[in-house]
Structure formats: C-alpha cells, structure tokens
Amino acid sequence: MVGENQLLAGRRALSVVDALSRAPEGLSFSKLEIEIGVSAASLSRLLKMLLNEGWIETEQRGRYVVGARTMTLARHLSGHWSEHEIIEPVVKDLAIATGHSACFARFANDSFVLTTKTEMPSSFHFIELYFKHYELHDNGMALTLLAYQEPDIARYLLEEQIGDGDIEGFVALLRTIRRDGHHISREGAVTRIAVPVHQGVGHTVKGVVAIAAINMNPDETDSCLNSVRIAAEEAERRLNNRADLSLRLAGQNLP
To answer: What structural domains and CATH numbers belong to the chain?
Structure first.
C-alpha cells in the first residue's frame, strides 16, 4: 500500500512538472488544481515538496513555473535531442495508425529533405533521409512546403523548374493548399496526404507531416487526413516546446 501511494505521488508530481513545462508563463494554484485533477490539500503537499527540491519555483505574480533543477536537466537533455528523435515517435505512430508509410520533411532553400520516416511493409518507400530532392512541382509534400514560402520565392522556383509551363495554375494550387491547410495529391498509384507543421517565431512553416499510400481506397481519405492532422499538431507541439525551452534556457545563468 505504501509503495502504491508513493507511485501515485510520483505520478502526480510528474504531472505538475509536465503541466508547467507546457505553460512558460506559469500557472496559478487554481489552474494547476484543475489541470492535475487533485484536491487542494493534495496539491499543496505536492507543490511544497517540489518547491523544496527545486523542481518548481514561484514568480512575482504568485504563479508556479518550472524550477532551476528542471531547467538544468532540460538543458542537459535538449543538447542531445535531434529533430529526428523528437519527431520519430509521431511519424511511427502515424504509420501504424493509418497502415501507410509516413514521414516528416523540411524545406531546404531550393529543395526538400526527409528527416524522419517510417515505411510500412508492402507500402510506398520514400527517398533516403537527408537526400536533397529538387523537383518541387511534381511532389505533394514539396508543393505543401512551397505553398508556405514567400510568394516571390515560390514563383521563382516554379519558373526555374517548369519554364513556360502553367505557372499560374501552380500558383493557384499553392493558394488552395494554404486555404485548406493540407494537400492531397495523386501521383499515379500513389496518394500523398501532407499537412504543414508551424514552428518558431511567427509560426512559419518549415516542415510537413505526410503519408504516402499505394492504391489507397478513396473511403480512407478522410480518416487518413484526420490522422495526419493530429500527427502534425503533435509534431508542432513537440518542436515548439523544444524551441520555447531553448529560448528560456538562453536567458538562464545555469551551470
């Protein structure tokens, strides 16, 4: 019984630290009480313990924030986390949920690269990781990335690649992608569904989460699109949490 109580207390303590890590501005006691779902008395004991150990702190407005001990640990860990490690679980879960190969791709000046992928058996196989792919006009992921670049840059790259082709048609397609917030393309037997990932200052789009399926059943499209959207939101949350943490750490004089 004692062991179970200790385990429960540990889980609740971790829940407090997790909630504060997702709220850089801090949380009040009442907000934490709602977030964690414990009684005021239990929360008071948890906060006292975490304050004494340095895992959390209070700021001038009385809100609770992550403490120096948590920040030091995060600083140590953040230096060892690559984008691939942060995004890989999201991409893997997406592939398993849909049954189709999934990936995360980034824009790279005049090309795009995959930084993470999970390929399902008997499914579509992507290009190699970190291999620069320059054909932007014939790939659904690339077009989604292109749709969120500066319009002049997007037009220039299209003109460079397709010459006298239907530039205005592609420009209109990019507007549609921005309006819809996703892109579904069918390239022969391959169907791609791509959703942008907003990241950093101004929430610019530098990446997309996507799946690629061979001979996808049209009835699957809506459910797969929903799965890709959920994965993109999770990728966005994870990447922006790392960015917020890095900014906060930069302002700390931590060992």
So the answer is: 2-66 (1.10.10.10), 83-245 (3.30.450.40)
